[in-house]
Write the structure tokens for this entry.
Amino acid sequence: MTDDVNIYDCIVIGGGHAGAEAAHAAAKIGAKTMLLTISKDTIAKASCNPAIGGIAKGQIVKEVDALGGLMGITTDATGIQFRLLNRSKGAAVQSPRAQIDKYKYSAYIRNLLEQTENLTIIEGMAAEILVDGNQVRGVVCTDGRVFNCGAAIVTTGTFLKGIMHTGTKQWAGGRLDEPASNELSDCLRKLGLDVQRLKTGTPARLDAKTIDYDKTEVQYGDEKPSPFSFLTDSITRKQIPCWITYTNEKIHKLLLDNMDRAPLYTGQIKTTGPRYCPSIETKIMRFADKTRHQVFLEPEDEEQRTIYCNGISTSVPEDVQDQMIKLMAGTENARIVHYAYAIEYDYCPAIQLKPSLETRKIKGLFLAGQINGTSGYEEAAGQGLMAGINAARLLDNKEPIVLGRHQAYIGVMVDDLLTREIDEPYRMFTSRAEWRMSLRSDNADKRLTQIGRDVGLVDDLRWARFQQTIEQSERLAEFLKNTRKAGKALWDYLKQPQNPFYHEIIQMPEISEMGVRADVIESVMTDAKYEGYLAKEEKAVENYQKDEKLKLPENIDYDKVEHLRAEAKEKLKRFKPATLGQAGRVGGITPADIMIIQIHLRKNNARHRSD
Ligand SMILES: Cc1cc2nc3c(=O)[nH]c(=O)nc-3n(C[C@H](O)[C@H](O)[C@H](O)COP(=O)(O)OP(=O)(O)OC[C@H]3O[C@@H](n4cnc5c(N)ncnc54)[C@H](O)[C@@H]3O)c2cc1C
């Protein structure tokens, strides 16, 4: 560790969801870390939806938690409405989601970071990354301050050359009322990184007191909220409802009449936004036959001062937004606190990264979060955590931690980012993972806590809790396998789709006497129920791992691979896959190409097997 005040092992630029996890992870592992961010007051700010989790994103939060990250415990501490999504569907696709008090969330993370040993938080805007040869050596701020470091993690979200749009109004900004970061973007270009542009948008916020809730439908959270953190026994904070209203034909006509002033349709916005999260003007164009769209009115804070209008993200002019709100049931007299806007920003296609999230060009320079072309707090947190771990390990001359597609949604995400062309902001879906049954939210600890412990992120408290989980799981599984009813093991009854004894089994006095936690019972029951599927997934994973272990030499010259198609050569030179398995997942690469590469490697005796 270094002692000089302006010398750090690792500097994290940006205190958003990626930056908070990165800084915490690097510092906790032992790197003297600085978090350089524009304002301490906006650490882990929810720029858009005041909610954490959701389909597949909830799994990422559980994984971040299992590895020792901050997002799960913070959501549990500041959540104001918890719901387990897809409750009626299979365990593989069930995901927790929570509305959070966005101010308390931000303050909670800031407080955790301020208490983290080895971590200093400094306010300022990074303008330049100093590089010696191809090695990071420091960061320069816009005010001229210089900080030295051996590794830097850039997590600047939507701030790089951000241009915001509301109607014909355009202005530079990184997020509502916050400045854009221009110099840093120029610096990344100068360092030789490919920089492209994407777009996203956010809806208006309303004054909660001015809404007529009687005209809306109420939506309550779960009676028994499911926590995000494996450390949380139960959620005690008071839960508050959301409300549902709808757009209508008058609103659709209003928007259609004003399409010539909508930046998305006038050519003012030239970049692509998330197709899975379209603006209201895109929805009415794309689904012209629909007479209404659902709008969730979600409180942004426990005191219910402001409401986020989930479902009507837009960039139409302010006067059109005023009329739209006036035409919607329940919001006729509502006051708009912040108008909706869209933002275009710079990002760096992640194919420039190694699986550790370090750039291939500059040693010690890592990128994580929205800057890699993703969207979402959870995706950002997952990448930030991995970048923090790997920056600290690089400084310690240790091999990076790369999670496989079979180990974590975080692994799926990083692998996707490295092997696919991104043409819209990337968000996680359960359908992106091939082994969903193994990547459940309830078993993230069993998949990842050992890794978190090995790298130095999981503290004694979490480790003790995990040991208890393992001990209880094994004891319960043994009981279920060894206890028979009508000659058949209870475990085998649990495998039946319509198991008539499910409730009878979980209510057995022997089980309650065992003192096994409810979450452990649920997880073991799920393992029993899906044992057959899990075994099939395990077999498929074995095959996947064979190709994953075949590392491709970094200096492989694809032009010299005989019989390889020209298109395959181009793709492989561009994506530079780290393993043979990854090469096979690059879009456009065929099994025949893979076979040709294998023959080439064998012939050149350059086949490297990892441990
Ligand atoms: C308008 C808008 C709409 C969005 N819509 C959606 C959506 O529909 N769905 C969705 O999933 N997500 C959406 N998001 C994205 C979500 O907010 C981000 O994905 C997530 O916050 C990304 O996390 P991050 O850590 O990468 O960046 P951010 O959370 O944006 O954090 C970036 C941090 O970097 C700091 N920073 C920036 N530049 C510098 C610099 N040069 N020096 C020091 N600090 C710097 C900033 O102050 C900030 O703290 C939206 C965001 C915005 C702004």
Notes: The CA atoms of residues 77 and 237 lie 7 Å apart.
